[in-house]
Amino acid sequence: MDQGLRSELQKQGVFTTTLEEVYNWGRANSVWPLTFGLACCAIEMIAASMSRFDLARFGAEVFRPSPRQADLMIVAGTVTKKMAPLVVRLYNQMPEPKYVIAMGACAISGGPFKQGYNVLKGIDRYVPVDVVIPGCPPRPEALIHAFMTLQEKIEQQKLTGPHRARHLDPDAPSEFPVPVYGEHDLVPPKNPQIWQPPVVQR
Ligand code: SF4
Fold first, then answer.
1. Cα 190 to ligand 1 centre (Å)
2. In 76-164, which ranges are continuous DSSP H helix?
C-alpha cells in the first residue's frame, strides 16, 4: 500500500496492514534458539539470556532443548572438525523457517585456532549463515544486535514472488549433506553449493 495513503488513513484512526506484515511480525518476535554452546562464546550467549541483558525482551527467551522445536541456531564457539557433522545434523533436524547466527571469530573463520588441523574454518562452509558477529568473544550486546538484525531480515521477507523467503521456495534445500570425519579431514571439506573460496584479485 502507498505509504502516503497509509499515513493519511492513520491520521483518521484507520490502521491497515497486510498478511505478509502480520506473518513476519509474528515470526520475528518469537524466534526460539536451540540450546547448545561449543566454547567460550557460549558463556556470553548464556549471559545474554540472563536478567542483566534479558534477551526475553525480544521474544527469544525460550531456548529449546530439541532442534525440532527451535528455529534459530546460534553457533557460539569453536567448531571442531569432529563437532561439525553434529552441527550440520542438528541444523537439518530443525524445521523451516530456520536461521543461523555465527557468533564469534571461531564460528566465522576458526578464530585463534584457524591454523589448527582440527578446527573448521567457518560453519558457513556447511550451513547457510544469516548473521555473523565478529569478536573474541562478542559481548552480549553484540548478540542482541545480531538478533535485532535477524528480526529486521525476517520482517523484510517476501511470502510470494521470485524474491520470496528461502523456506517458501520449493526448490531451495532445507537439509544439507552431513560431512564425515575422514582419514585426514572432513569429507567433503566444504559444501560447494553453499561456500566457494573467495577469489583474490591481484
Ligand atoms: S571466538 Fe574467542 S571467545 Fe569465542 S569461542 Fe573462539 S576463542 Fe572462545
1. 22
2. 84-93, 104-109, 140-155
